[in-house]
Design brief:
The protein contains no helices and 8 strands. The protein is mainly beta. It has a 5-stranded antiparallel beta sheet with strand order 1-2-8-3-6, with no helix packed on it. It has a 3-stranded antiparallel beta sheet with strand order 5-4-7, with no helix packed on it. A hairpin with a 3-residue loop joins strand 1 and strand 2.
Length: about 100
Amino acid sequence: MKIVELDKAPEKENPHNVLAKGLFDTDQVQVVHLELKPGESLKLHKTPMNVFFYVLEGTGIVVIGDEEETASKDMLIDSPKAIPHLLRNESDSLFRFLVVKLKE
């Protein structure tokens, strides 16, 4: 059994300059915990694989393609590969979510 504690997970460098911690990584899937402080955002980008986001805490704006929605705790958001997407925190509190990348 392998257990990963968030506070002990390694930080991952990223082009968005936000706190990201790697929780799980295999040939099939990668799970990263992201934390956006108030005013922080991911840059608009595409991924070469299907991704989904699972919101753990707070609320944030999710943009996928030309769709924009507010996401909050316990929501799962699907993001198909090669579609531009971003997440941003316009609230006054922390926005935490998991990014799950489904490798092909």
